[in-house]
Amino acid sequence: xxxxxxxxxxxxxxxxxxxLKNVSLTIHQGMFGLLGRNGAGxxxxxxxxxxxxxxxxxxxxxxxxxxxxxxxxxxxxxxLPQDFSMYPxxxxxxxxxxxxxxxxxxxxxxxxxxxxxxxxxNLTEHKHKKVKxxxxxxxxxxxxxxxxxxxxKVLIVDEPTAGLDPEERIRFRNLLCEVAEERIVILxxxxxxxxxxxx
Length: 199
Description:
The protein has helices spanning 42-49, 70-75, 92-102, 107-120, 136-148, 166-179; strands spanning 4-14, 17-28, 30-35, 57-62, 65-66, 77-80, 154-158, 184-189. With 199 residues, the protein is of the alpha/beta class. The strands form two sheets. A four-stranded antiparallel β-sheet has the order 2-1-4-5. A four-stranded parallel β-sheet has the order 3-8-7-6, with helices on both faces. The radius of gyration is 17 Å and the shape is globular.
């Protein structure tokens, strides 16, 4: 199966305001960054790719599937919005299990995937901690875990490092680099350092 996203001459309007103008991109497996100031259209493009917004015109295919086939696209896409939140009184493990139930995942698979993801995002020791007690960085890592729960081919993360301290930004960026080794990861930011390697 094609493992790329093709975007051709995509336009999007909010009333008379044009948010996307003739956007054309090809995104392959690995990390792809959208860098630009706030209001540049990064979130609009990401929500369009996640089938949360409809384009006005143009063509988009995700791994060979037209964007109009929203159900299929959503089944292969993980999405972490900038304003991500989860049930504050649930524990980390409970919240992931609940989302797995909503996704229709079988219990044994849920248990296996949750344990694997908690280890990957370094939250195993905090699995019994309530979401409301997590730091900002931990909440973002939990957000990545929920976005990866159904093992998507595409991961879309919108301004994930906003509000994090420099050390947590580096940690989070390194996590995304690991994840990008086996799927398409689209990251948006207005922080140039999010795309540079090293400390």
